[in-house]
């Protein structure tokens, strides 16, 4: 998720469904979907140009996609012929820097004023045995930080096999002119793989989220627990291209979740606070934990939990100075607020007091943030004694065995999904060309489409990317025949389902 410079629109990638959504956040308390764009790739990363006009979308697939944000449409595609997870960033001068997971190189482009990408070349990192993991451009628009995923003691070692005292690389680059990069330094003694980077307002300090390793076991740890827990680390930008690592300042976080391509742990810095979200909390070591964001005081580096109403897969800083907020009222009590597993496996609900000052989950003992009545309110149920798919839930009679939210008890004394599609209003959940299906997802249903179409991301069906409606069928658009391609000299357009490729001419 990224936010436009004016703070009015959020762009959110939906990797599985291949959409980028545009959400109006001009009133942050009442966000609304403005529209979406179907991608020819499984999008994951989004970077927005400094003027807020264009977004570069990357992810799983070999294409780099440019979106016109105001028009909510694709304006350019670039085929790098590298089909892997990718990540990248845009500098204020239009330099686009893209890395690919498990490849020792960086691709460099220039984004023009009309949204077209021009490839500047590749920066080969093989000489440094460097495999990039994340890219960040500092506020000076010149300094670029690139994290390395391989340990310095073994160029091929994956973080899941990290030694007890891990050490990784951080590369410092400088943008010398649009599309031109120069390697300035490679720092070898970074204690974690840098997963996300955020800068302070002045651009003097870089705060780096270093992910842990699965070598320590389950994901959730207390804030004081040793091992390979994730770290919030600090570096200093002294001048363009000059960066130093400050080993004396760091905060140990609650997680030792692994550095994987699927793991979009996120970091936001605002004033003297850092906020950290964990995307894999829903899959690893999550059984005893409520949903939360870690809050780090950047003066003391003390870490505490801030409860969240759902799984936090991404964070973004909204460029607003003030926002009105209502002070939540209520007693700091766990009555009716004990942790409940949701019908969707790996997700939990509740687990904190409604006044959001204390927690009601088993991990609160590690963090020291339990509500005073946690033991009395939440100790009356043991999930291991619940039968028929039941779990511990909050009821009017207290905390006891019952069906998780999104499901109900059936005639066989078990739990089954709620019939969302068949209940009142269910017929209106999907468009006329889509079929409603009960599924263990948020909302309890999905809208499925026929073989020739795909879900439109909202309620109906549409033709897939690079296809158009002909009667009742979706057919491929031949970009080559319609002169809808842009191939460099020495190549020819070749149409393939959904798009085209530029192939070198035969000698």
Could you walk me through the main structural features you see in this protein, from its secondary elements to its overall organization?
By secondary structure, this protein is mostly beta strands. It folds into three domains: 276 residues, YVTN repeat-like/Quinoprotein amine dehydrogenase (Methylamine Dehydrogenase, Chain H), CATH 2.130.10.10; 78 residues, no CATH class; 74 residues. Helices cover 2% and strands 44% of the residues. The protein is built from two helices and 36 strands. The chain has a six-stranded antiparallel β-sheet, with no helix packed on it. It has a four-stranded antiparallel β-sheet with strand order 1-2-3-4, with no helix packed on it. Strands 11-12-13-14 form a four-stranded antiparallel β-sheet, with no helix packed on it. The longest helix is centred in the C-terminal third of the chain and has 5 residues. The chain starts with a strand and ends with a strand. About 3% of the residues have low confidence.
